[in-house]
Amino acid sequence: MFKFIKSSSTKSNWLVHSGVEICFWGRSNVGKSSLINSITNISNLARVSKTPGRTQLLNYFADENKVIVDLPGYGYAKMGTRENEKMNLMIQEYLENSTNLKHVFLLLDSRRGITEIDAQIISYLKSLRKPITFIFTKLDKLNQSEKSKLLKLIKEIESEWFEFDYILVSTLKKTNIDKLKEKIEHIFIGG
Fold first, then answer.
1. For every one of its 191 residues, what pLDDT tens digit does the chain have, with 9 covering 90 and above?
2. Residue 16 per-residue DSSP state
3. Which bin fits 42, alpha (ψ -120 to 50), beta or left (φ > 0)?
4. What is the fold of 3-188?
5. Which of 19, 81, 91, 20 is nearest to 55 (CA)?
6. Are 183 and 133 in contact (CB under 8 A)?
7. Phi and psi for 21 in degrees, rounded to 5?
8. Torsion angles phi and psi, residue 85, rounded to 5
């Protein structure tokens, strides 16, 4: 069973372990904490807040040699410039230097599609050459027409940029949560 282990702000206090690490990253309030709670089946494991920018540290959750890292969200405008830069450097240091990190799950709000800041983040992640899966969250908020538009957007992006792995999810309705759990388990066992 997953448990909260620690929060970290610098490499010197990262969780030291020999297991496999995955991380969740995305815009502030995209649903990272809700998704972590959903995939672990523990409703209050990761703190969920309606206030953007609540997560400001790397939060480690572990189940033996399986580690999930919840990264602070990006794009939160109300945080001071200095605080924002410090947080961005912390995330960059983690993404570029964690030897245990095997996969990045980038969460994108289904209602927004891919924003300019999302595109910048995607470009940055591509440069790191780490496996990435895009998770389009809040699928339950879309009607059928909006879902069709989202799928069309995904196909356009794949033809213009690159093919990518993606999953459309709703934590509220549990849509594709099992599919995501299977993918994560595959990564944890070395796939």
1. 999 999 999 999 999 999 999 999 999 889 999 999 999 999 889 887 655 555 689 999 999 999 999 999 887 656 667 887 888 999 999 999 999 999 999 999 999 988 999 989 999 999 999 999 999 999 999 999 999 999 998 888 887 776 788 999 999 999 999 999 999 999 999 85
2. P
3. beta
4. Rossmann fold (3.40.50)
5. 91
6. yes
7. -115, 140
8. -60, -40
Is 71 within 8 Å of 90 (Cβ atoms)? no
38-56: b (≥16 Cβ within 10 Å) or e? bbbeeeebbebeeebbebb
The predicted structure's pLDDT at residue 84 = 78
What is the domain partition of the chain in residue ranges? 3-188
Nearest Cα neighbor of 109 from 138, 141, 82, 131 is 138
180, 169 Cβ separation under 8 angstroms:
yes
- Rounded CA separation 110/107 (Å): 9
For residues 136 and 112, give the distance between their C-alpha atoms in angstroms, rounded to a whole number. Answer: 10
Compute the distance between CA of residue 1 and CA of residue 4 in angstroms, rounded to an integer. Answer: 10
Q: What Rg value do the Cα atoms of the chain yield, rounded? A: 16
